[in-house]
């Protein structure tokens, strides 16, 4: 399969365009604001040129409930330090439960341990109200941090909603994270309460985490109480926890309760997410209640086309921002679908089976999952009823044109496929899909409304049809309000704003086309530069991974003193394959043909596995630094990796070369 980038694969029908949520919004704009837009691109252009009017229209269109009215949309015209709707006071959870409905479930959840269940809006409301009451009795109040060490299960959503209802600050880590990784996250924020499971199941194996829980608790002197969820074993012993309260007791109130909502300032914290922490302690990234509320309403309703009755799934863990984004689906009245477990257990069709069983409308996943399905020659359309499926959304890394074509050939020929890109930093995708736009192979459909995305060269000049740095040149509501414990703002400024002063530099290489689509080429600091010709690593991997014997690959660029560079390619081969001379030649020819003669690897090495972060992303820059002779302990935090032992190969290789 060798699909050309930019091949037209899908165009929405007239009916699909007419019925799209974004079409209703455009009609509303014309009727109530006298703003006419002939298509998506004129709508986007208006949204990034008249920021205040656009975001005010989002506030009005979604009928944001504010306990105090706002006077100004923004406190400043600058990106840095801008406060949105500074006088307003709101509550995120209040906006979730205004959607209570008898017509559809709020949550559908299943896991390797649990049968599929549907949870009504009323049960979600009552469980949240009961847990809110319990947390309140334990002294949890506005501004307190609540840490959650639990997987993507129903209880975790309840815990988040109860936390946010009190104006407290949420932070979660997945139980498949290592002890040190979780400690480095939670110690920085000094949580007052902790919600935890005793363990989890993955790929059919049980992982008891009670020892980890004990270590975490002893490392968190700020803890006052623990809500315990016996997930792995109903008889789990949580007796060593700080003031343990069982989930059953915390949510088991027999009488009907009414939620109360603590109003907080629009720019007060909602949750704390974390950077990958590959080169030090993870940065605690704080997002505001109001910024996330507005951005997620806009993204899931106008871009993902969710509304009451929609069924929204994303394969994620609680350690990835896509879990937070998935929960945002509740803001529209959609039913969210939770799955905890391996995407390959009890077989590799488990998620497609889930799509059929739940009548899923939106299937959110990663590019690596789609690539794995393609490499397994799966044909979901032949095995499952996917008649309800309208959209596949892919993120985590760039989706290759071949991945696009596979979805249309083997899933559904009229699917609306959205490759999206954003990050933990903004807890959303600012490059995403639109139900009223065509789909081109390998390309992201559009920049999000209100997101002034540009591509800059090294001198800060805007580019079209050329690869440059992905930048945001205007304020955006879900940018971090600050990093926790970064009172001066130094770490945050250094992370985003010191490449181009006053401009957010995201760290990805991007090409914006003249038809207003976008292509991501990987991290800009991992770009391969041979003889002055730059190429994104995603293009390298797309070419290498098309070789039948190759399962995964990683390339780094090692500059030499003579102005040239060495570019070793590391490959994981499929079972039974050997790195023969003929296979090496096949790989080199593939890169010569699909990239350029300058990007043929100087060396090819076979490895058993590639180092990956806890969120499954390849670790390119630390590998590069290790191979250039730097001490591994100073360039990579092993606790940030899902497979830390994989670094040993590169450490040994560095000694040899």
Walk me through what this model shows.
The protein has a domain at 525-656: ANL, C-terminal domain (GMP Synthetase, Chain A, domain 3, 2-Layer Sandwich). 31% of the residues lie in helices and 22% in strands. The protein is an alpha/beta fold. The two termini are 37 Å apart. The longest helix has 17 residues, at 121-137. A seven-stranded mixed beta sheet has the order 4-3-16-15-17-18-19, sandwiched between helices. It has a five-stranded parallel beta sheet with strand order 6-5-7-10-11, with helices on both faces.
* Percent in strands: 15-25%
| The level-1 CATH class of the domain at 525-656 | Alpha Beta
What Rg, in angstroms, do the CA atoms define?
24 Å
> Runs with pLDDT <50, length 5+?
none
- How would a crystallographer describe the biggest sheet? 7 strands, mixed
Shape: globular
Strand-pairing-aware structural class: alpha/beta
Termini Cα gap: 37 Å
What would the CATH topology of the domain at 525-656 be?
A: GMP Synthetase, Chain A, domain 3
Residue-averaged pLDDT, rounded?
A: 93
Number of helices: 22
Per CATH, which architecture of the domain at 525-656? 2-Layer Sandwich
Count of strand segments: 35
Helical content class: 25-40%
CATH superfamily of the domain at 525-656: ANL, C-terminal domain
Domain Acetyl-coenzyme A synthetase N-terminal: 40-95
Pfam families: ACAS_N (PF16177), AMP-binding (PF00501), AMP-binding_C (PF13193)
Family: Belongs to the ATP-dependent AMP-binding enzyme family.
Domain AMP-binding enzyme C-terminal: 565-617
Describe the structure concisely for a colleague:
One of its GO terms (biological process) is lipid metabolic process. With 657 residues, this protein is of the alpha/beta class.
